[in-house]
Write a structure and sequence with these properties.
By secondary structure, the protein is of the alpha+beta class. The chain has helices at 20-29, 44-52, and strands at residues 6-11, 37-41, 57-61. The protein has a single domain, classed as Ribosomal protein L30/L7 (Ribosomal Protein L30, Chain: A, 2-Layer Sandwich), CATH 3.30.1390. The protein is 31% helix and 26% strand.
Length: 62
Amino acid sequence: MTKRDEIKVTLRRSAIGYSKKQKVTLESLGLRRLNRSRTFKDTPSIRGMIRKVEHLVEVEEV
């Protein structure tokens, strides 16, 4: 696995006021606090989860 195959996801906005599905998606990504980041392997399933909460997170390729 090369470094280009990874993405860094940072929670930038709170999920308060958004649907339960979006909160569960953030929880399953492991994003529980603002400005916390996680690094994931760039897979279609992770990209799909990010797409559901893209208005709350910031994504960078590592």
